[in-house]
Fold each of these.
Amino acid sequence: MDPGGTRIELTACRCSGSGIPFRVTGRPPATLELSPEVADARPGIAQPQLAGWGRIPAAGEELLSETLERATLGARLSRGLGRSYGDSSLPASAADRVVGTRLANRIVAFDEKTGVIRAEAGLSLAEMNRLFIPRGWFTPVTPGTKYVTLGGMVASDVHGKNHHIDGCFGAHVRWLRLRLADDSVVECSPTQYADLFYGTIGGMGLLGHVLEVEFAFHRISSPWLWMESERVPGVDEFLGSLGRAAAAFPMSMGWIDCLSRGQSMGRGIMMAGRWATHEEAPSTPPVEAKKKSFPADLPNFALNRVTAKLFNMAYYWRHVRRRRAGIVAPDPFFYPLDAILDWNRAYGSRGFTQYQCVLPRAAGAPAVRDFMQLLTRLGGASPLCVIKDCGPEGRGVLSFPLEGTSIAVDMAMAPDLQRIIDRLNEFVIAAKGRIYLSKDRFTRAEHFRAMEPRLATFLSLREKWDPRHRLRSAQSVRLFGDKV
Ligand SMILES: Cc1cc2nc3c(=O)[nH]c(=O)nc-3n(C[C@H](O)[C@H](O)[C@H](O)COP(=O)(O)OP(=O)(O)OC[C@H]3O[C@@H](n4cnc5c(N)ncnc54)[C@H](O)[C@@H]3O)c2cc1C
């Protein structure tokens, strides 16, 4: 065990059978060469506590292991790269066994004709992009950071800029291998233990530890993207622009200035894109820019209403021409925030949360406008506010998206944060929307119950597959009342 609280367990490489024809496997133990996203697993770096991306810590330690099947025996929670903002990847109690999956990252099988891949749950999206984009394949769905694991993508049922076309990641998953709460290992799919399969997709790790995942990559026409962006002066125009972009492009989203008021409330930059055709793409592959790291925690006062407003104004007007179009590489298109590692230190040691909700299409543009108004009135928002058009609800029992508009906004820790989130949740409940558990840290159990008609189904699945609630997290204690 290292001095900080992360234990590392190494084993010889193994290859499990899969029945898929072409195999890429037998990679050496991942610890021989640590990629940036697992580098913090190096012995000697203190990690007395665990935290999600929002940096609000909880006491506990994680066991990093290359062999999930063994490490998950008796474990109460799995976690990947800790990119969920809130407490979903944090232990309910410091004594709980938490497995960190990121060293278990072998590709078990890959079929180069169909793009079907089977891999261990700790494989990161960064690694998949590195290996497969040059070969003409891309994950069917990607979130806004590539520093996530396959297990985390399943447990959160992540969505991306193409949700209105391709749904969530879970819609492309064909098979899962799970360690259940009773310590048995089962395989499930849409035709085998389908209730367990759909409960696990978006189930925040509470029905089983994901050991292996099988899904199909999408073919891409080139490793480059065609992107169009537009500066939009206010919230109503923004919603129109979002609708037009969603109809014309497979991928779309926008950055919104949620600090400006009056006429310019909800102004922002709309972005849309598609994979570039072979003819449009440059003849050389994209080169990944060298990553910069955020050097230190900023003081807590550095990001405040005034600095955030100045940042927003500069970001908005940086888009000098109203419309822009051109070829871009995947990283700046999909993962602009990943350009600076550890950017979450900008919020200082106090930490932060992200509030993400979806307002149903039926509530219409007035609901989005009223929500933006409420948000600007309540304060607390930071420069990061993302708006996105979502397509129909998927089959994951607790999956987040539903047809409508999703709004995600970062908020620094502050004494009135709970009050702000309560107020936003009351609005979302009245609009028949819901929040995203992967981002959440502050929603009250009664609010979650009121906004989530599928909760009873999920809880009955838990009663069936884990009646003693052995699998639990800090979030399941807060929202489902699990006993500690
Ligand atoms: C900058 C940024 C942008 C983001 N953009 C998006 C976005 O566009 N769309 C989106 O959907 N999400 C987005 N997210 C959220 C992120 O995609 C999810 O939180 C994702 O689950 C994180 O993956 P992870 O491997 O870090 O999992 P963790 O954060 O470590 O864990 C997340 C949840 O998954 C569970 N889990 C992890 N591994 C396993 C396993 N093997 N078995 C069972 N349960 C497991 C954990 O218990 C926890 O409940 C973003 C996050 C960041 C920081």
Note: The chain has two domains: 6-219, 225-444.
Amino acid sequence: MTDTTRREEIAAGLARVEADIAEACRAAGRRREELTLVAVSKTYPASDVRLLAELGVADVGENRDQEASAKAHECADLGLTWHFIGQLQTNKARSVVSYADVVHSVDRLRLVSALGREAVRAGREVTCLVQVALDGDPGRGGALPEEVPALADAVAGTGGLRLGGVMAVAPLGGDPARAFARLREISEAVRKTHPGADVISAGMSGDMTEAIANGATHLRVGTALLGRRKPLVR
Ligand SMILES: *Cc1c(COP(=O)(O)O)cnc(C)c1O
């Protein structure tokens, strides 16, 4: 495919996503400026990230360190904000901190200390979101709701880290509106102790509308922008 065709394809995807966001904002009585669109570029090449940037996208999300690291370095000239959204092993903390501005998947104390140590070492400040497992099954990443307050306190009290707020993925097969309503309650509880932690990262291609209706501030959208991903071979 030529670059022009790909550019048009991505521009069309972006226009559709923006139209859906506008519609959901109208329905929820919210303003577009309250939302950050994070374009999830996993499995797609750095050239797509470049096209997204040319089309005005400022935030990019990736879920695997090796792939993210290569792309972030290749696109370092674009001044994008990089979001790490995948499950994260502590031994990858040093690498992730070298390019990520925001880590959405902080779900255990050992990860908090590893990220803090590496952020201080690198002289960086990394915004962290506490990921919540809304179905009570931490298998896909995320802390149990009852673990969130202690994790939030730990992030807020760790040098090199800034507590941004909370993140969740809607449970498979569940009602996303209900899940995101629960996430909003958890966010409100966190903000009682940490008033600045106002980020709610919720909503993907299939459930943006429900996320916007329930107070999301960050949408993580891949498929609707860039197309369906090929199954991952690991
Ligand atoms: C891949 C991914 C997304 C984007 O999902 P789409 O359905 O392609 O929009 C969002 N959040 C996380 C955590 C992901 O891994």
Note: Residues 40, 42, 63, 85-86, 169, 204-206, 220-224 surround pyridoxal-5'-phosphate (CB under 6 Å).
